[in-house]
């Protein structure tokens, strides 16, 4: 589920948007410095019946969020910079099948089709991890179960060499894109 989908669900359930929640939280004194996030979440659960994930989405709107371009740039900071052209080529290849939206977090970049996540990409200095959402596909030596690495995808490929962004990987991404 995308961040916007969380907010849309909250709006549908409560009739309130993030600005409404901000005002209500401010009126209750919950935006004062030092207020623990848990106190705000408890209020959202009790008064509005929100679950933890939806509550966290609302809480995150109370804070300044870096621009998407800044979040993407931070993915390639320092020793991870050499992965940027490989990532850009990977996205460009999938875009041959249609538009791809990117939604960066602080730790990975989600790839979406029509608001539905079909893959994620994360970086270290030595590896690019590609998480792919292809339900029902068997695990292979190359495409392992994503397990606890990220529950938003079904498989994970660990890329340590740019040559591993090959036809097989792109085929998996295209299948995930088509299924999204």
Can you describe what's shown?
The protein has 180 residues and is of the alpha+beta class. The protein has two domains: 59 residues, no CATH class; 112 residues. It is 42% helix and 16% strand. It has seven helices and six strands; from the N terminus they run H-H-H-H-H-H-E-E-E-E-E-E-H. Strands 1-2-3-4-6-5 form a six-stranded antiparallel β-sheet. Strand 1 and strand 2 form a beta hairpin. Helix 1 packs across helix 4 and helix 3 packs across helix 4. It is elongated, with a radius of gyration of 19 Å. It starts with a helix and ends with a helix. The mean pLDDT is 93.
What would you say about this model in short?
The chain is an alpha+beta fold.
Shape: elongated
Give the CA-CA distance, first to last residue: 12 Å
C-alpha Rg (nearest Å): 19 Å
Mean of pLDDT: 93
In percent terms, what proportion of residues is strand?
Answer: 15-25%
- Secondary-structure element sequence? HHHHHHEEEEEEH
The low-pLDDT segments are none
Largest sheet: number of strands, sense, barrel closure: 6 strands, antiparallel
Strand order of the largest sheet: 1-2-3-4-6-5
Domain module tally: 2
| Helix fraction by DSSP (H/I, runs of at least 4) | 40-55%
Number of DSSP E strands:
6
Organism: Salinibacterium xinjiangense
Domain DUF5655: 73-178
Protein name: DUF5655 domain-containing protein
InterPro entries: DUF4287, DUF5655
